[in-house]
Amino acid sequence: MSSLPAAPLFVCHPKSSYFRFQFEAETTTRANSLGAQNAFGTIVFDAEGVLWSFVYEGTKELGLFGKILAQVYNPSVLRTVQWTRLREYDFAELQGAYREAIRKDDDILTQFVDADKLIGWIDECKDFNGLVKVWKRANPDRSRRGKSGS
Description:
By secondary structure, the chain is α+β, with helices and mostly antiparallel strands. The protein has one domain (about 10-140). Helices cover about 35% and strands about 25% of the residues. The protein starts with 8 loop residues before the first strand and ends in a 12-residue tail after the last helix.
């Protein structure tokens, strides 16, 4: 059993419209305090049907003063990503997460394609690779290696 998600990945935060595609699982990344704080609750669907979560090493919940200070001074620093394997998922769960993100979307996911059309494409998919093709079709500028999937 691997300690990293199998790439590629779909990353989402169930309480928001945050949904993106990633070519690989990061072991380190640059993140500021607020970004690291907002990662709590994020889930990752990997290519082998496993659901993951992650936290940035050393991230602590920001108190009121920390949140206020982060509005003024919030530098990005290199952080280690700690991955946790949660469970296996059904493909329908991933489709549902993508659909839900579109419903909450503020013209990010639907920038190039109408929401109803995009949901139709998602519903037509039979597997993970089909959903990757939908992502690339709907997000031509964010589907190349080296570009952020968000």
